[in-house]
Amino acid sequence: MTAKRSTRLVALLAVPAALTLSVAAPALAHDGNDSGSQTRHGRDYQVTLLPLNDSGARGTAQLTLQGRQLTVKIESQGLVPGQPHAQHIHGSTTGHEFTCPDTSADKNGDGIVSTAEGLPAYGDINISLTTKGDTSKASGLAVDRMPVADKNGNLSYARTITVSQAVADHISRLHVVQHGIDPNGNGMYDFGKGKSELDPKLPQEATAPANCGTIDSHGGGHMANH
Ligand SMILES: [Cu+2]
């Protein structure tokens, strides 16, 4: 059944251009020497993934950077069992600060912070954390290459990818988001919360964010005043 549902979601399109942010980036005031803890394997960054949309989905991510090789390990619980979960590193490496959204991002008041409503807070997709192949923004909704939660709603992910120098220099400005929720608890993505703004053929449930976590060691989610 998983395969079938996943297939139905394969047609997910890349985020339409209209949804991309056109926020002018303030002047860059970051020295590019992000903190994090140095180990002999590289520089480690810890992320605590906290639930959005009452998903109950939480987890941890560890990012290890060695040059431009980024190893991403994610362990999550409470996701929709047996369903694919699109996951991304969101945010900007050019000086604009983004962070995880709170419920105030729910502009239409339907009780769900949709992916589009969350974008002004968490920024555009920077890296798509696929299981194989392309990791660019273009693969943001390639659900056939996104990890699937097991029957208990647990998800484990590990992959090493090559990132741009900009990402390597500004990794702590970014944050991790996993998508896919099941507010009516029927064990699948359905149209109970309407259509996804990203593709009306898809349920909002399949693309709405389930959790989000900022990368540690950047002193919290303050807004830059430079
Ligand atoms: Cu995302």
From TrEMBL:
<feature type="signal peptide">
    <location>
        <begin position="1"/>
        <end position="29"/>
    </location>
</feature>
<keyword id="KW-0732">Signal</keyword>
<protein>
    <recommendedName>
        <fullName>CHRD domain-containing protein</fullName>
    </recommendedName>
</protein>
<feature type="region of interest" description="Disordered">
    <location>
        <begin position="205"/>
        <end position="226"/>
    </location>
</feature>
